[in-house]
Design goal:
The protein is globular and about 65 Å long. By secondary structure, the chain is mainly β. It is built from 4 helices and 35 strands. The strands form 9 sheets. Strands 2, 3, 5, 6, 7, 8, 9 and 11 form an 8-stranded antiparallel sheet that branches. It has a 7-stranded mixed sheet with strand order 25-23-21-15-12-32-35. 7% of the residues lie in helices and 37% in strands. 42% of the residues are buried. Strand 2 and strand 3 form a beta hairpin. The chain folds into 2 domains: 106 residues, Sandwich (Immunoglobulin-like), CATH 2.60.40; 260 residues, no CATH class.
Length: 398
Amino acid sequence: MKRKFLILFVFLLPVLSCYREEPSVAHLTVQLRLDEAPVAVDLTQLEVRLQNKGADFSYTEHPDASGKVQFDVQPGKYDVVASAWFKSTRIAVNGASEEFLLSAEGLWDAHGEFRAPLLEIPLHVAVPNPLIIREVYFHGCTTLEGANYTKDTYVELYNNAGPGGQTVYLDSLCLATVFPYNSTTGNNAWTGRDTIPIAQMYWMFPGEGHSYPLAPGESAVVACVAAVDHSGRATSALALNRAHFGCWSELLPRHEIAAGVIPMVLNMTGQGNQWAVSVHSPAFVIFRPSMGVAAYQAQGAVWENYEPGKSSGSKYWHIDKNWILDGVECVDSPSSAIKRLPGTIDASYVWMRSGHYSGKCVTRKLDFTEDGINVFQDTNNSDADFIPDSNPSPRLKP
């Protein structure tokens, strides 16, 4: 009797499987929109990446000549990044969406509104900027005794104009990290706005206008916490006593500076007593207020605001996105990353695979060398422009 039942069950198994519920499929149409460009742009050359925010995988397609692309994927939370670098004209084309939830029935946008599964993404055309962030070291390392160590953080700026390009003057240029400190803090309340909150404080290069020139091919290394020789303290052995500039103020007890390193000018915008650079996922920007730093600082009523939707708690100083010369977002994983910089500054983010305190950094890819001067890749897309998990190689003073 048991044998007959087993035979009947095996016979019915293929029939029963026909009644299993098939996994749902979500359909999404992305329409790229390019309103104007200095040269003709072939939209079919853009890479459109649909990133799943719940796992470390993505879907990539190329649009048709009209800029339309269709995705058929599993439901989930996503964002979209579209980008291309046209080497012959040296322009970058980028666009990005806010996060959204995609289902078989439609999508819920970042504001919680349900609508048809169609995203229209405006594209931004960027010409190369002479001043770029070439390298960021933030992941930390360990002390010689094995403890976690983060005081050797630095940022390197570089004049990427190439042979015959313009000299850049660092005077009154500003360096900051943006808020939220980490990319894994849930939602970004400032998403989609024209101003970006900066974290706690920002640092200004000193000078009277032409005091600190940076010629094409030259670097300026900024030690973010301790502009000292770390070789006797930490496994990174970074000689940041040879940094060009140091973020130092007597108001910040953790900060140190060696003789010969030029102090940056501290502009306090929060209540903290240290410049907190995330070891997980910082977003750095270099910017210059259009009205000048002194006038900007005098307009607290305009530029200092609560988080959107709140009327109490912490206030944050903001910068206009159009003041930003360059920016880079660093994340631990794209699956949990929120965007803090607009797509016009950085269409994506550079993803560190190494663990915290690994002594690794992010460094920009070399595009070409001409007349002995390096020109680095600058497509306004950190995922394409930077090499994660690199060994630190700051171009320090001799």
